[in-house]
């Protein structure tokens, strides 16, 4: 190697740590837009878990990262306003929770890195080209599998064998209903159950739907921010009108619902911190595959079953991750 080339190489090597040091001294900005209400303990737990996981990866708030957290709830106008507010901050990475939130962020942040959680169908929603190669500035962790729809029908039929009709309670602003419908219809057909899609647009419509279920009716509460925000009311009304209901997540059964089956939200928050860490260190969302949930929980509330006059099969109790007595 010539002396001039060697000298240039040494100089470059000496400059590299200075560049790294200069980059590490900049406080990076991570934005979080949550589609659940700030008062929701589950949402608070998710935010805390994400921050703790990010800290465990070496990101200390006030030293090398700043986190801007906004709570939108299910209100679409508020989601859009907060998405614009966070866009103006030009974050280095953003965590988006729920499908409506990511939809708003994708519109306002066409190039900023976005990591999503609590999204059911990212391909159908247009967030990613496919799971292996998202292809854009958005990637993350899906909360559901399409086969869950059939599982909800099967579980509810096991707990409430007289349920010949099941109403699907969903909000049109949430995940696309067609994501779950093939598995729901297949399971319903095999069990001779009639399904009825009920779109709920406002809180004051919930009671009429639940009260309208007859003695042979059941309720499947589908995953979306609206149902999450109003879950306590749905649980209360299902008990009052004696309607067997299955919910999209275990925490609904812990809150008094009959049965909950779904993925682990805390695990998603931890995984999302890992992706944000990689993005802050230079990774591109397009190179980070969308990941499906790997951990599901089944929680059965025997107190709720007793109130409805239902006898839960022992085989199902043995299969449950948790039984509330």
Low-confidence segments, ≥5 residues, pLDDT <50?
Answer: 1-23
| H-E string | HEHEHEHEEHEHEHEHHEHEHEHHE
**Overall form:** elongated
Name the CATH superfamily assignment of the largest domain: Response regulator
CATH top-level class of the largest domain:
Alpha Beta
The percent of residues in helical segments reads 40-55%
**How many strands in all?**
12
Describe the secondary-structure layout.
Blueprint: H1 3-25, E1 28-34, H2 41-56, E2 65-71, H3 76-88, E3 93-97, H4 99-108, E4 114-119, E5 138-142, H5 148-159, E6 165-170, H6 181-190, E7 194-199, H7 206-211, E8 217-221, H8 225-229, H9 231-240, E9 245-247, H10 250-254, E10 259-263, H11 265-280, E11 296-301, H12 302-307, H13 314-319, E12 322-324
Parallel strand pairs: 1-2, 1-3, 3-4, 4-5, 6-7, 6-8, 8-9, 9-10, 11-12
Antiparallel strand pairs: 10-11
Helix pairs in contact: 2-11, 3-4, 5-6
What does this structure look like?
This protein is an alpha/beta fold. It folds into two domains: 3-144 and 264-295, Rossmann fold, CATH 3.40.50; 148-263 and 297-324, Response regulator (Rossmann fold, 3-Layer(aba) Sandwich), CATH 3.40.50. The protein is built from 13 helices and twelve strands. It has helices spanning 3-25, 41-56, 76-88, 99-108, 148-159, 181-190, 206-211, 225-229, 231-240, 250-254, 265-280, 302-307, 314-319, and strands at 28-34, 65-71, 93-97, 114-119, 138-142, 165-170, 194-199, 217-221, 245-247, 259-263, 296-301, 322-324. Strand 1, helix 2 (41-56) and strand 2 form a beta-alpha-beta unit. Helix 3 (76-88) packs across helix 4 (99-108). The protein starts with a helix and ends with a strand.
């Amino acid at each position: 190697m010539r002396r001039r080339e060697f000298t240039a190489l040494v100089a470059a090597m000496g400059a590299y740590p200075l560049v790294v040091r200069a980059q590490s001294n900049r406080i990076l900005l991570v934005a979080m837009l949550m589609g659940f209400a700030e008062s929701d303990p589950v949402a608070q737990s998710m935010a805390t878990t994400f921050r703790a996981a990010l800290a465990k990866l070496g990101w200390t708030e006030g030293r090398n990262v700043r986190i801007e957290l906004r709570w939108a709830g299910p209100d679409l106008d508020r989601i859009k306003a907060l998405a614009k507010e966070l866009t103006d901050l030009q974050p280095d990475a953003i965590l988006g929770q729920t499908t409506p939130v990511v939809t708003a962020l994708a519109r306002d942040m066409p190039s900023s890195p976005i990591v999503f959680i609590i999204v059911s169908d990212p391909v159908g929603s247009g967030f990613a080209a496919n799971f292996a190669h998202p292809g854009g500035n958005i990637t993350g962790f899906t909360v559901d599998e399409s086969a869950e729809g059939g599982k909800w029908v099967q579980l509810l039929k096991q707990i409430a064998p007289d349920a010949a009709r099941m109403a699907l309670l969903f909000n049109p602003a949430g995940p696309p209903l067609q994501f779950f419908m093939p598995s729901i219809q297949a399971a319903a057909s095999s069990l001779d159950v009639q399904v009825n899609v009920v779109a709920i647009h406002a809180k004051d419509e919930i009671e009429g739907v639940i009260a309208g279920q007859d003695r042979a009716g059941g309720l499947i509460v589908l995953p979306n921010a609206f149902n999450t925000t109003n879950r306590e009311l749905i649980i209360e009304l299902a008990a009052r009108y004696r309607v067997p209901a299955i919910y999209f997540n275990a925490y609904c059964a812990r809150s008094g619902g009959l049965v909950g089956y779904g993925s682990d939200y805390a695990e998603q928050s931890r995984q999302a911190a890992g992706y944000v860490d990689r993005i802050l260190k230079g990774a591109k969302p397009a190179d980070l595959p969308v990941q499906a949930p790997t951990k599901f929980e089944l929680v059965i509330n025997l107190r709720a079953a007793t109130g409805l006059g239902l006898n839960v099969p022992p085989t199902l109790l043995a299969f449950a991750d948790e039984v509330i007595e």
